[in-house]
Amino acid sequence: MAMAGRLRSGLPFLRQVLTFDTPSAVAAQRCAASKSLLCPLTNTELSRDFATASASTEQKIKVPVTMFGVSGNYASALYIAAVKANVLDKVESELVDLVEASKRSLSFSQFMKDSSVTADTRVKAVNEISTQAKFSDITKNFLAVVAEYGRLSQLERVVQRFAELTMAHKGEVKVIVTSVIPLPQEEEKELKETLQDMIGQGKKVKVEQKIDPSILGGLVVEFGQKVFDMSIKTRARQMERFLREPVNLE
């Protein structure tokens, strides 16, 4: 109760820092080779589709969050392909499971990071994995693209960016709460309700807890690109700086 009360006292500040990106269309310059593998179409069909489709056809599917860089481009292309095939949740689940499995397997993790492995070997390996795991065509083709272009070492980051897109698609807001010990169920519920009240009914709060003894106590709440730091560690540093300031006795 006390924790939730302290959080509510900071609501005006939290409202200021809570921001959302507006949807934007994916750039037309996406790699054609990547698209041909991400979409379960032949190269001929895909070429004809891009040659004859109107601009409005491509604009029907927009990524909900603008992303940049290699990981952002791959995540955005995957998002569009998954939405078109109506398998967004399935693709996310498959890729998250694969990333988690790679963390548990040292040999697989090393394989993904080994730049000396040939493209053919990489593609063959991910195709075998996809077949054994019975992945969807979108996931299988996506992994083939990533393997062929030597991006397996960046797969985890791509999947993280893709998860951000799927959350935005569902109207979810990810909130990371860091504390010294796991929050009691009642306090977590109060925190979630407080954040939900701020965000409104159009969005759904998804809380992820992290444990970090170094913050000494209190909470650190993160959402979007903002951080609301209520930790004892930060307060102690602020007090230390205050005490070190020269005192003017005149």
TrEMBL record:
Gene Ontology biological-process annotations: ATP biosynthetic process; proton transmembrane transport
Subcellular location: Membrane
InterPro entries referenced in this protein's UniProt entry, alphabetically: ATP_synth_OSCP/delta_N_sf, ATPase_OSCP/d_CS, ATPase_OSCP/dsu
Organism: Forsythia ovata
SUPFAM superfamilies: N-terminal domain of the delta subunit of the F1F0-ATP synthase
Protein's UniProt keywords contain Ion transport: yes
A single cellular component GO annotation: membrane
Matching PANTHER family: ATP SYNTHASE DELTA CHAIN
Pfam families in alphabetical order: OSCP
Entry annotated with the keyword Ion transport: yes
The organism's place on the tree of life at top rank: Eukaryota
Keyword terms of this UniProt record: ATP synthesis, Hydrogen ion transport, Ion transport, Membrane, Transport
Protein name: ATP synthase subunit O
Family to which the UniProt record says this protein belongs: Belongs to the ATPase delta chain family.
Description of how the protein assembles with itself and partners: F-type ATPases have 2 components, CF(1) - the catalytic core - and CF(0) - the membrane proton channel. CF(1) has five subunits: alpha(3), beta(3), gamma(1), delta(1), epsilon(1). CF(0) has three main subunits: a, b and c.
Gene3D superfamilies the record matches: N-terminal domain of the delta subunit of the F1F0-ATP synthase
Lineage: Eukaryota, Viridiplantae, Streptophyta, Embryophyta, Tracheophyta
